[in-house]
Amino acid sequence: MEISVEKIEGIKDSDYFYEAYNIQVENHRILTIVTYCEVTVTKWIKDAKKSYNSKSLSKTVIVGLSVEREYDEYSRYGLRDTPFQLLHLCIGSHCLLYHLANPYDYDYFPNKFLNSFLSDPKVVVVGMGIKEKASKLEREFGVKLKNAVDLNELAVKGMKRDELDLGRYDLDRLAKAVLGKHVDVVRPEKNVEWFVMGKRYCCCDELTKEKVLFTTVDAYLCFWIGSELFDMILGIDSSAAGSSKKSKKKKEKMK
Asked: What is the pTM of this model?
């Protein structure tokens, strides 16, 4: 599967602070916003919701979600339970990479709009190991995922293929099983560097293009797999839905 990343240069906006990237996943283009700014996160959620239309679940928003930290820290007692540092959200062709503030800092304030969005019962959050991530997000950041759905469990329910042991698949293997063998992400042999050396962005390190690319791909795969599985469960022909979208775009171009 061909994937690529291109940074959008020359963005100047006094009200919002972010970096933008075009991510290409085969023939699909994704706009990724990277930010630490709460106001930007609020605007991204509003814009992404407006542009999204779920064929599977009426009046419901499907969100691909993951979270991670740069390094695992260990003590003599084992792995330390340190806070997440980066939140990834994907809604359709829109992805957000949000630098999370340290919840134990004295000046930390929770993002109320983000919390309100993810706790909305009409928002279905899909991801890998989502229950553990949801528990940690609520414990550390006060973010409650009202409607969290684990992709492995959804795949077992949607595909009904007991011989595949779908409950144990990782993201890449699950993507091939649900979306097709062509969805094959070739990942770097070494760990991807998070930050560009020597570059600062308003007191926040700039993510490398490689990090933005693979983090976006992961969030998009979560969204894509989740949407496909809901289509299977509800008996919706996703290929027909996809072709209707393409024909609609062609008609718009001809006008």
From this structure: 0.87
